[in-house]
Prior knowledge:
Distance between the termini: 50 Å
Largest sheet: 2 strands, antiparallel
Number of strands: 2
Oligomer: single chain
Number of domains: 1
Strand content: under 5%
CATH class: Mainly Alpha
Order of helices and strands: HHHHHHEEH
CATH topology: Four Helix Bundle (Hemerythrin (Met), subunit A)
Helix content: over 70%
Shape: globular
Amino acid sequence: MEENVYLFVPNLIGYVRVVLALASFYFMPSNHVLAATLYLLSGFLDALDGHAARYFNQCSRLGALLDMVTDRFTTMGLLATLCYLYPSYMFFFQLSMVIDIVSHWIHTQSSLIKGSTSHKVIDLSANPILRHYYHNKVILFTMCAANELFYCLLYLCHFTCGPVLPLFNVGLWTVLAVLTCPLAIVKSGISVVQLWAACENVVTIDVAERQQARRNKAD
């Protein structure tokens, strides 16, 4: 019996992530608690679809694409909201969007050119930063979670500072935003490294193909 890839469990989780993310966008102007809850729940499910794919032996190219695209558009939607809420920092959020989209798009294209099945499959001879980032699940989860949490906390801080910590007389959301900010910055730095490494891969392939074309012409 032919398998229905659309109905693979990890892909079903991916569809739920999309619905939750879109619902969070809808409520962002009017209900910050519900919007943040839906957004974070969508992000939490991102940690489950990979486990489900391995557990049910349902890894698929559709799932990999759905995972990456959902990651990108959820973050972009939140950053677009932050541009509205914090207009003085609009350039920072726009720059974050540009780095995130461009680095992942070029990296994905370079992976396809090299024949990789996923943008997370890194050649062991490639950049060591990316090798540890994508192959160490603790590092990958921590960086991605901190990045999403930072932006979500910035969103919440526009409406409330959160429960006040009596010892410091500072809101919890503010404290968590300060703590996750350095990791979000590092995450953007890793995206820049990813962009550079992907461009290097494509250029290497270009050079090899041009050399081969010259050899074929000489023959």
